[in-house]
Write a structure and sequence with these properties.
It is a single chain. The protein is α/β, with parallel strands linked by helices. The protein has three domains: 10-161, Alpha-D-Glucose-1,6-Bisphosphate, Chain A, domain 3, CATH 3.40.120; 173-380, Alpha-D-Glucose-1,6-Bisphosphate, subunit A, domain 3 (Alpha-D-Glucose-1,6-Bisphosphate, Chain A, domain 3), CATH 3.40.120; 384-469, Alpha-D-phosphohexomutase, C-terminal domain (TATA-Binding Protein, 2-Layer Sandwich), CATH 3.30.310. 37% of the residues lie in helices and 22% in strands. It contains 16 helices and 21 strands. The strands form four sheets. The chain has a six-stranded mixed sheet, sandwiched between helices. The protein has a six-stranded antiparallel sheet with strand order 16-21-20-19-18-17, covered by helices on one side. A five-stranded mixed sheet has the order 8-7-9-10-11, with helices on both faces.
Length: 482
């Protein structure tokens, strides 16, 4: 199997493609890149999450990097991706290798490469690594030494980033506001690397916290550690049973967030991002660009317009948001899949910081989350969104043929413009829109929809269903937009 970096790293099933040998090959590619840039002594953090064999895979990376003369900082324990990324910036290192499959199912593992700017690797960087990987596979040349040899050589040192990260968070979050609010919050790290981070910082801020799924479990309770609606049943039940004000969750490597209100209702990332953008301007007095991906709600556009802020749309993937953040004028950047970061922080999505910001917002407003959401909707209106996945063969020319036959209507709504920068985005009358993107990892077409009411969203959904079941001529209706 060819090793390729997707939207956020390389991921594969353990004992199938994600093997010790392939991990060493990827590590050698990263080592070669580091050596070519003469950064052997700057240091590379090697991190891992709570997945099966995580530390063992990380040790394989260390053996290869050290054999190439690269100084390695191996984390002492399972560590969240945003914390590892923060460590790169804090210690001015050349980068990090993170062993994680993030929110994927338990049988997966993966590798994220984090360059010296402490954000996701840019497409040019991963393309370069993929070319090196192909060369290494052809040559079979991988340098390697034992872990004992690496340690005795002085090239390996243990590292604990947590206290430094916590100090940084204390400077970003208003702990004084949290202390006065008397909040009760259920925290759910979903058995992942975020265990203890949100809960301990909230406790320090005087918040009554109730922890669930705070034990290491490589099987994540038998489900994917993805903090989406269907996976947060336990969190919802605990919030209701305990009478808590809020429920906060993180995924397997704690770079994504999940939120439940006091009524046990899941609040989508699209709504959370808009709430936080509003909070940072309205309550904290911060300003800057709002950056969102093409698949993320235009509710953020309304917040930007309401407060006179510029807005930038990027391709799907936090690496594109991170690139915008490196320019230095971004207030908040976010994506509908649960990724978020803010100014004064690293250009990497951080579910820990986002959860703490949500708590801060509720404490500041002295209101329940549903009331704050209602206030925002009264101010800028409400939008309704949905993501649909449909089987889609990426056979030769399939996507191109689809893109050549776009409709001039989706249901009753006219297509006003077409944006082809990432997949194809149909901008419909009345601010409605539809985005189609082939999955980079599965034979699926991801379809994102947004409308001004539940009724309109249902109309769009039915139009898409008719399209894919062949019950309608869409998109091959002869009304072609090129």
């Amino acid at each position: 199997m060819e090793i390729k970096f997707g939207t956020d790293g390389w991921r594969a099933v353990m004992a199938d493609s994600f093997t010790m040998e392939n991990v060493r090959i990827v590590a050698q590619a990263i080592a070669s890149d580091t050596c070519e840039n003469n950064r052997e002594q700057d240091g590379v953090i090697v991190g891992y999450d709570t997945r099966f064999m995580g530390r063992r895979f990380a040790e394989q990376v260390v053996q290869v990097l050290a054999a190439n003369g690269i100084r390695c900082c191996l984390v002492r324990e399972a560590t969240p991706t945003p914390v590892v990324a923060f460590g790169v910036k804090h210690f001015a290192l050349s980068g990090a290798v993170m062993i994680t499959a993030s929110h994927n199912a338990p049988e997966y593992n993966g590798i994220k490469y984090i360059p010296d700017y402490a954000g996701p690797a840019a497409p040019a960087v991963t393309a370069g690594l993929e070319e090196r990987i192909r060369e290494i596979v052809r040559s079979g040349h991988v340098k390697r030494m034992t872990l004992a040899e690496a340690e005795s050589s002085g090239l390996v040192e243990p590292l604990d980033v947590r206290p430094h990260y916590a100090d940084h968070v204390r400077r970003l979050i208003r702990f004084d506001v949290l202390k006065e609010a008397g909040l009760s919050i259920v925290v759910d790290p979903m058995h992942g690397a975020g265990i203890g981070y949100v809960s301990q910082l909230l406790k320090e801020a005087g918040v009554h916290t109730i922890g669930i799924r705070e034990t290491v479990d490589p099987l994540f309770g038998g489900a994917a550690p993805e903090p989406i609606d269907k996976n947060l049943t336990v969190l919802k039940a605990k919030v209701l049973a305990s009478g808590a004000d809020l429920g906060l969750a993180n995924d397997g490597d704690a770079d994504r967030f999940g939120v439940v209100d006091h009524l046990g209702r899941y609040i989508s990332p699209n709504k959370v991002l808009a709430l936080l953008a509003r909070h940072l301007v309205k309550n904290r007095g911060w300003h800057g660009r709002i950056v969102r991906t093409a698949a993320t709600s235009h509710l953020l556009d309304r917040i930007a317009e309401r407060y006179g802020l510029p807005l930038t749309e990027t391709a799907v993937g936090f690496k594109y948001i991170g690139a915008e953040m490196l320019k230095g004028d971004v207030l908040i950047g976010g994506e509908e899949s649960g990724g978020c970061s803010i100014q004064r922080h690293i250009p990497e999505k951080d579910g820990i910081l986002t959860n703490l910001l949500i708590a801060e917002m509720c404490a500041w407003e002295r209101k329940k989350l549903d009331q704050i959401l209602s206030d925002m909707h009264e101010d800028v209106g409400e939008l309704f969104d949905l993501r649909m996945d449909r089987p889609f063969s990426m056979g030769k020319g399939a996507w191109e043929r689809t893109m050549e036959c776009l409709p001039d209507r989706v249901g009753p709504f006219r297509v006003l413009a077409v944006d082809r920068r990432d997949g194809v985005k149909l901008l419909l009358e009345g601010g409605r829109w539809m985005l189609l993107r082939p999955s980079g990892t599965e034979p699926l077409l991801r379809i994102y929809l947004e409308a001004a009411s539940k009724t309109e969203l249902q109309i769009l959904t039915e139009a898409v269903d008719a399209w894919f079941t062949g019950a309608a001529d869409m998109p091959y209706n002869g009304n072609i937009i090129r």
